[in-house]
Amino acid sequence: MNTSGTAARRPSQLFRNLNAKVASIPMILTALMVFLGGTVWTIVYSFTNSKLLPRLKFVGLDQYERLWSAPRWWTSIENLVVYGVLSLIFSLVIGFVLAALLDQKIRFEGVFRTIFLYPFALSFVVTGLTWQWILNPDFGVQHLVRAIGWESFTFNPLYDQDIVIYGILIAGLWQGTGLVMCLMLAGLRGIDEDIWKAARVDGIPMWKTYLFIVIPMMRPVFITTLVIIASGIVRLYDLVVAQTSGGPGGASEVPAKYVYDYMFLAQNLGQGFAASTMMLLSVAIIVVPWAYLEFGGGKRG
Amino acid sequence: MADVQTLNTVAVGTDPVTDRISGPRGAKPRPKLSRRNIFIYGTLIVVAAYYLVPLYVMVVTSLKGMPEIRLGNIFAPPVDITFEPWVKAWATACTGLNCDGLSRGFWNSVQITVPSVIFSIAVASVNGYALSNWRFKGADTFFTILIVGAFIPYQVMIYPIVILLREIGLYGTLWGLVIVHSIFGMPILTLLFRNYFSSVPEELFKAARVDGAGFWRIYFVIMLPMALPIFVVAIIIQITGVWNDFLFGVIYTKPDTYPMTVQLNNIVNSVQGVKEYNVNMAATILTGLVPLFVYFVSGKLFVRGIAAGAVKG
């Protein structure tokens, strides 16, 4: 009976599936026209000298040469590398430690989790403006410490070209660490209780159990988290715009801002396309090996 | 009985029998002032304070008058509580020539968020349904492109979308932005719905097919009512995502239709006039209220939405 039902479904699917195809038109259009088409379009036009309007006058690698000889682009890249590496390290370490602490069968776990995660619900604009205020040298942390009596105390990251990116990092970590904690906690909860029991029976200290047993077991969670954070880092834009507007003196520029400014303010589309293509390339360097490991070679959980 | 603390510190040589007895009962340490507990709770409380301070500072600042802000420090509680900054931020703060406060941005954001959430979820849920139950040739290819597209920096696609929207006459309008949000919400939402519908027992679907129900009927009568929790998760993801967006708002709308985040940034970072920090902070809180509300109300579902973002196909 059941088989006849299935058998009847197969041939009719050729016809009936028309509905599914019609329903999938938005997805097909998005995938082909925007994601695939848009990307290819931008890459192609990055080899042209489009200014105010895109036009197909190819100039080879000119835009890229100009891009890599622009000091502003180099500053952007340096900032992104500093911000990216530090925020990866700190958010993974802090996120994991917080998750491990919350996983100790403590009281008020829900309260702590709610507190650690709430900044993630806020936008980067709100985050940036809040920290702009807290780090304000005349009113914020610096002012407070000086008022207590430490007159020479200096901490004004947002007005110091050398450390401005760390000021942004503080805000970024505040906003994003809760997410990492959440993912790590889910990973920790997925670890079999028996592992802990076995480690306890063997008398292995807790920190060793974490370091040599639990963390290696959480490899997939770590990699997924890494990819999520990394692809977010490349997009870093709102936070900088809100917190420093790229200042002081362009010291906190980032690639995404470079792209926006050249496309929509400087009316130099070609530069914007070239810069965005470089961003795509950097993401590809991160994502392609991961996708290969995850989906290509050897199936992993 | 040996509790977790002693087991942690004591190395090999603990009485294995005691361990085995206490083990299955789940090592639940009674609340007591052990050194371990002080360390755990101490760390958590310090970190929690760090997370809460910005919120506290924002609220406190927004309730002070400007003279008090200039004299005191930002951590001090307000002496003279005033709600004027809130009123000003909402109703009269200026961005460029418009002096009707953040309320304009708020209503724009509402007009952007509501249709974006409905439209994107409607499209993505049908996509996910088609992908899990009505696979057609090539469907997986499109889906793969969609998922890969989630990792492509938006910057690569923003200009082609400007051209597309200009061609259909929606560039600079709220509906144009709705389309953009639906496009960029599609990968994660489609993934979410596809994974959910795939977990629905196949027999149910087959039974409905035998009874002669078609694509849309099965979707509306069987799948939709079953998937309500996942719809709630999707709504949470989309409301916070769309409301918090800045980049698309700044690119695809005009000053009259700027969403709240963009307008907030323009108010606070405007170079003209005296800086009114209390108004700025009131405006900042106002902009954060909607996602914060969603966060606190949704609780566990919000976390589930985040976890969904981490789940791979």
From TrEMBL, chain A:
Keywords: Cell membrane, Membrane, Transmembrane, Transmembrane helix, Transport
Any one cellular-component term (Gene Ontology): plasma membrane
Domain ABC transmembrane type-1: 77-292
Ranges annotated as spanning the membrane: 21-47, 80-102, 114-134, 163-188, 209-234, 273-293
Protein name: Sugar ABC transporter permease
Record-linked PROSITE patterns: ABC_TM1
Compartments, record wording: Cell membrane
GO BP, one annotated term: transmembrane transport
Topology relative to the membrane: Multi-pass membrane protein
Similarity section: Belongs to the binding-protein-dependent transport system permease family.
Broad class of the protein's primary localization: membrane
From TrEMBL, chain B:
Compartmental location: Cell membrane
Annotated transmembrane regions: 38-59, 112-130, 142-162, 174-197, 218-239, 279-297
Entry keyword Transmembrane: yes
SUPFAM superfamilies in the cross-refs: MetI-like
Membrane topology: Multi-pass membrane protein
InterPro entries named in the record: MetI-like, MetI-like_sf
GO annotation, cellular component aspect: plasma membrane
Record has Transmembrane as a keyword: yes
PROSITE patterns listed in its UniProt record: ABC_TM1
Short name of any one Pfam family annotated for the protein: BPD_transp_1
Domain ABC transmembrane type-1, residue spans: 106-298
Keywords linked to the UniProt accession: Membrane, Transmembrane, Transmembrane helix, Transport
Gene Ontology BP terms: transmembrane transport
PANTHER family: ABC TRANSPORTER PERMEASE PROTEIN, GLUCOSE IMPORT SYSTEM PERMEASE PROTEIN GLCU
Similarity annotation: Belongs to the binding-protein-dependent transport system permease family.
Stated name of the protein: Sugar ABC transporter permease
